[in-house]
Design a protein that fits this description.
Layout: H1 9-16, E1 25-26, H2 29-46, E2 50-59, H3 66-83, E3 89-93, E4 96-102, H4 106-121, E5 129-138, H5 144-151
Parallel strand pairs: 1-3
Antiparallel strand pairs: 2-4, 2-5, 3-4
Helix pairs in contact: 3-4
Length: 152
């Protein structure tokens, strides 16, 4: 077990840094929820924006095992992950992937979807996988009470 000197900030920072890896981070749902909530706070505080996206995968083969189906979905997930930026995060949910893409505009969203589609088309999965995308841009929440307080 590694002993970390928590009183030394440099040592602590080195101990928590991730290994350099291309693409988005694949997180479990608990980690994703934590970062998602942080990002919502950041967006509201700094008047920023992000895009959240759900990519659902349908497999157009009837006679494959559950194990093969899961393997195909996992492969598509890895393809999506490596297509995204290092600042993006994603989590698997059943046969879907939920993505959080900071500072991604509506136009950029279309570019990302097309890149993922092109990557799938480059593989042998293109004739057995259908991808459905649901997305929205997250902007700061401005409620009426805040607006009134700001106007006074």
């Amino acid at each position: 077990m590694e002993i970390i000197d928590f009183l030394n900030l440099n040592t602590f920072n080195k101990s928590i840094q991730e290994k350099a890896e291309a693409g988005a981070q694949m997180l479990d749902i608990t980690e994703f929820r934590t970062i998602y909530n942080y990002m919502r706070r950041y967006i509201n505080t700094y008047n920023s924006f992000a895009c959240e996206m759900m990519i659902s995968i349908d497999i157009d083969l009837m006679y494959i095992s559950q194990e093969e189906r899961e393997s195909i979905i996992k492969g598509v997930g890895e393809l999506i992950r490596t297509t995204l930026r290092k600042s993006d995060i994603m989590t698997p949910v059943s046969n879907s992937f939920v993505l959080l893409l900071p500072e991604l505009t509506e136009q950029d969203k279309i570019t990302v979807i097309n890149r993922i589609k092109d990557r799938i088309f480059e593989t042998e999965l293109y004739n057995i996988v259908t991808m459905r995308v649901d997305s929205q841009v997250i902007t700061p929440e401005v409620n009426f009470e805040t607006w009134i307080r700001m106007a006074v």
